[in-house]
Amino acid sequence: MKKTGYIFLFLFLVISTKITGQNSKINWISFQQLEDSLKIKPKKVFISFYADWCTYCKKMDRTAFKNKEVIHILNSEYYAIKMNTESKETIFFDAIKYSNKQLEKSRRPTHEIPLLLAKRKGKPFTLPVNLILDKNFRIVKRRFNYISPEEMIKMLKEF
Question: How far apart are CA 76 and CA 73, in angstroms?
Fold first, then answer.
């Protein structure tokens, strides 16, 4: 009897989560998945670049990226990508090969994709970096600092 109760409770929780559409985490995808997804259904894109050593990136993981409204907006209105700037992965996007050419040359090697999308003329590359791109994959917003949950909600709703 006790086992049946647990099964019923589990099914109730699964079904209620599906019905309300609430997820407890952001559905992060890769650049490869993004390319396929954009072909099927154009949507705005949110990109968060981080590194394991970045204190403010970790703070955003604990705050903004755990906020229920941020999660809801990102999951429903955006394709969300989270990429480690020090990634060793070779990525093919739009038939172009991207890699981390700074590996073994720099103490903090940065992949080509963050350098391409988030480099600022005359300023060093810094983290965290968060970008919003429109449905045509054009950058409409770039932020180079910690973003609180409230600021994140405002920024995501702006576009």
Answer: 5
